[in-house]
Design goal:
about 170 residues; alpha+beta; Yope Regulator, Chain: A
């Protein structure tokens, strides 16, 4: 048996030793986060928040004075079981802004802009009375990764400020 054959045999055998599915790689410890650690991520950014629960009992937070120009910034936790959640959604509400047209929303959301968040208008995109919102979701962050979540929240807040500046420039 030559070296090449031995290496190929080893690789084939090693592939059988790998987990049966991707789900095996995502265990509860590293794939879910608690409200306590989300609050810690908020505090690590020097921010304060009020904690609430939605009608389904899932936690969410409303930031106090995030300094972004948005009317409000909230963090929603979804897909929760036993106090641990798989998804964290950052959301900003700019309220109704008539000068934001569909073209502005489309430009922001275009893949070429390289922005992580998505902006939208509630109701019809052409309804000037619909509120402008922004959101992005982070999934499978564990309690031990709350500092990474803080970084993601910080990046989201930068994009919220960018959207506020975009709105301010519109005529």
């Amino acid at each position: 048996m030559n070296i090449k054959t031995m290496l190929m045999s080893t690789l084939v055998l090693a592939s059988f030793a790998m987990p049966a599915s991707a789900a095996d790689l995502l265990n509860a410890k590293h794939a879910t986060i608690s409200a306590k650690m989300v609050m810690q991520a908020i505090k690590d950014l020097g921010l304060a928040a009020e904690q609430h629960k939605d009608k389904g009992g899932d936690p969410h937070f409303v930031l106090k004075d995030a300094g972004t120009g948005a009317k409000s910034v909230a963090i929603f936790m979804d897909d929760c079981k036993n106090g641990m959640c798989e998804d964290v959604t950052f959301y900003a509400d700019f309220g109704p802004v008539a000068k934001v047209k569909a073209a502005t929303l489309n430009e922001w959301n275009h893949i070429g802009t390289k922005l992580r968040s998505k902006v939208f208008r509630s109701g019809s995109v052409d309804n000037a009375n619909g509120s402008i919102g922004m959101s992005t979701t982070v999934s499978y962050v564990g309690d031990d990764e709350y500092k990474e979540l803080a970084m993601q929240l910080g990046l989201f807040l930068v994009e919220v400020k960018m959207m506020d500046a975009t709105i301010a420039k519109l005529k």
